Structure formats: structure tokens, C-alpha cells
Amino acid sequence: MTNVLAPSGPLADPVARAREHRAWYFYDWANSAFVTTTATVLFGPYLTAVAETAACGEAGTTDDPCHGDLSVLGVPIAAGSVAAYTVTFATILSALLLPIVGAIADRTSKKRHLMAGFAWTGSAAAAAMFFVAGANWQLGAGLLVVAAICLGSSMVVYDAILVQIAHEDDRDRVSSRGWAFGYLGGGLLLALNLALVTLEPFGLSRSDTVRISLLSAGLWWAAWTIIPFRGIRDRPPTGVVRVGGSTARQAAGQLRETLRHARGYPQTLLFLIAYMLYNDGVQTVISASSIYGNRELGLGEDVLIVAILIVQFVAFGGALALGRLADRYGAKNIVMSSLVLWTVVVGAAFFLPVEQVVPFLILAVAIGFVLGGSQALSRSLFSLLVPKGKEAEYFSLYQAAERGTSWFGTLAFGLAFQLTDSYRWSVLVLVTFFIAGLIVLSKVDLQAGIVAAGNQVPRSVARYR
């Protein structure tokens, strides 16, 4: 790969531009394996089992639940809460660190190096989860924190690169294809790993198959990152604030400048509020669907596994389909339509019959269809509202907002269950997040926000003002 810097914007040659887009897609393909196999499905229950072994001995791995405590800095922690507390700590720490990562990224011409550095550090931590065994829960918790922070940091840089490689008219399509690749790659490795864990071949134990699956997710993340690292070109930074001193001091100075002037972009901030609201609902549906299916509907683990895979593969097609619709009808209109569909889907979940597999799987298909498109188009919409030269900083706020507020939905879900003793009402409460996000998003003047940020108004936006 040449060290000569490319122009600051998308490449002029359409063939070279398309080639760079394809390289960019593969980072979604790479990191989604960790998100699905490790973060979403396998590591939480496995870390809980390891923590319960530490607290209760072998009792933590039997059908008899463990109620023992562990000590963290002298504070007693329930073994069953270790995974949740670890994720919460990683989430809060990410929300604090990501804006600094964004400020640094906007000052460098080597964004692909920064993205890949975070990716390979995170993937090393993910692969090292293979060594979490017995009662060594501290190693598992530490590795999960490192991997989660590195994932968020790499995504800040990755999202910012979208602005550099794609014209405004192309971003809905490029972002949608990236998300689609991610769901396909993550779903493919998850299917292989779930088959391994379920079948337990070659005399392997359940613990062995889980650890091998965790290792495979880390190796997948690391290996596929090579493609975007080699295929994306370096570009000079633009519009940075000149601050003396070290790189860290320069980054902090630019960050202060961005936050000071963020109030000058009210449509950008309004979109960010809308995204925080409806994304909270999306993330809670993803994380709580297995609890709802198992505890409220009485469905077995095999059904939940099938549902997870359905969501992954349908989301691949959904992201591509909604991306095409966005080009025709405007991304904002499609996102708003998807939020209406989210409201209908979550409302329908309230009425699902107990121990009936087919209705639950039909709902999984509907969730998969709206999931990929709503996330992909949200990313491309936000990219249009970001001032030039501050892409990574603003996407760090985007990522930090997502991670820093993503506990509101789970809190509402938990409180509703505590008050009603029913997960049906917990699910129904989530409708409020989609409705609130839809209302706020409807107030966003997208064209005014794009112009204020100094970006070109895409044809699809101008057509449906």
C-alpha cells in the first residue's frame, strides 16, 4: 500500500472508489463476529458460570443455582451479576474515552492505522478469552473490558472514514452494505460456533467448545481487519484546530472546541437525541428477547438459537432493501417508517402465545428486517450532519451517546417487570422509546442541518424536503 496521501474526499475514479468501499465493508464483517458470538451470545453466560465456580465451587456449574458472593475491592458482588456489572463498567468507561479517541483520529492522516490498531488489540483480548477457565473470572472480566473499549474506539474511526470515502449521495447505500456485510459475517461464524457448542464433537466438553468459539471470534476479527487496513487510503486531516503541545493536548483542545460549538448545530444535536431514544429501544429488544422468549413464553434454548440466526441473516437482506428504499424515498422517511414498524413489532410481542414457536420466529423475521436498515441509515444520516473535519469527534459522540445511555431501556425493562411480575409489560414499555424517537426525529430539519454542517444535500433529501 502506498504512503502517498489520497485527496481529502472520495476518490475521483469510480472503479477505485468502489474498490475502497468494498474494503471498508469488511470491517463490519470482521468485528461483527465478536459482537454476535462473544458479546451477545456466549461470553455472558460463560463468565457467569466461571464466577459462580469461584464463589461456590462446582455448585456454580450445576443445575443448583449459586447464590455466593465475590469480593471486588472489598465490596461483595453477587456471582450472577459479574457479567452485567462488567458490561456496565465497560460501557461507562467507553463513553468517557471515545470522545478523546475521536479528537485524536481527526488530527491524524493515518485513520486506517488507528482503526486497525484498536481492532487488533481488541481481537487479541477477545482471542485470549480462550484461557478463561476454572474460577478465573477476573481475567475474563478484564479481557471483556479491553475488547469492548477497543471495539468502540475502532468503530469511531471506522464510521468517520465513511465520510472520507463516500459522497453524500452514496452514503446510504455504502453504510447499508457495510451493515449487511456485518450481519452476514457475524451470522455465519455464529452458526458455526453454535453448531460446535450444541454438538460437542470429538469428545469436547461444553466449556471447551465455548472457549474454542471465543478464540475463533477473536481470530476472525483480527484476520478480516487486514482487508480494510490494506484497502483504505490515507487522507490528510482537514479543519483541525491548531493547538500547541503534545498530541493528547492537541486532541483535548480540539475536543473542547467541538463541544463549545456543537450548540451551533441544533439539527445535529436534535438527531442525536432522537437516535439515543430509539436506539435504546433497539438495543434493549436485542438483549432482552431471549429472556422474554425463555421466561415468559416458555421456549427452549434451541428455539432461541434459531431465532438469533434468523435475525442475523434476515437483517442482511433488510439492510440492503431499506438502503435501496432510502435512495428512492429518502433515508429520514425510511428510518421513520422503520420506527413505526418497530412499534408494531414490539406491540405484537405483547400478545404472543405461550409455547408457540411459529409466532415467535415470525416476529424474529420482522425484527431482523427492520434492525439492519434502521441502524445503517441512522449512521449515514448522522454523517450528513457532521461538520467537515470533525467526523471522528462527532462520531465519538454518536458512539458515546449510544453506549452511555443504552442502559435506560434495560432499566425500564427491569422496573416494569419488578412492578408487574410480567415480562409482557416489560416489552410493551419499550414501545415508548420508539414513539419518542419517532417524534423527535420528525422535528429534525435534515436539509437545514446538512447545509449548516457545510455538506452537500443529497438528491434523495432535496427531493423529499
Brief account:
This protein is an all-alpha fold and 465 residues long. Helix content is 75%, strand content 2%.
Provide an overview of this structure:
The protein has helices at 14-56, 82-106, 111-128, 137-165, 171-199, 206-224, 226-231, 247-261, 266-296, 301-329, 331-349, 357-384, 391-405, 407-420, 423-429, 431-442, 446-452, 459-463; strands at 69-72, 75-78. The protein is an all-alpha fold and 465 residues long. It has a single domain (14-463), classed as MFS general substrate transporter like domains (Growth Hormone, Chain: A, Up-down Bundle). A two-stranded antiparallel sheet has the order 1-2. Helix 14 (407-420) packs antiparallel against helix 15 (423-429). The chain is globular.
Topology:
Blueprint: H1 14-56, E1 69-72, E2 75-78, H2 82-106, H3 111-128, H4 137-165, H5 171-199, H6 206-224, H7 226-231, H8 247-261, H9 266-296, H10 301-329, H11 331-349, H12 357-384, H13 391-405, H14 407-420, H15 423-429, H16 431-442, H17 446-452, H18 459-463
Antiparallel strand pairs: 1-2
Any descriptors?
single chain, 465 residues, mainly alpha, 2% strand, ATG22/LtaA_families, transmembrane transporter activity, transmembrane helix
Order of strands across the main sheet: 1-2
The H-and-E topology, N to C, reads as HEEHHHHHHHHHHHHHHHHH
Instruction: Tally the structural domains.
Output: 1
Q: Structural class, please?
A: mainly alpha
Number of helical stretches of at least 4 residues:
18
Give helix % range. over 70%
Looking at the structure, the CATH topology is Growth Hormone, Chain: A
Distance between the first and last residues' Cα: 42 Å
Tell me the radius of gyration. Answer: 22 Å
- Output the CATH homologous superfamily: MFS general substrate transporter like domains
- The overall strand count is 2
The parts where pLDDT drops under 50 for at least 5 residues are 59-63
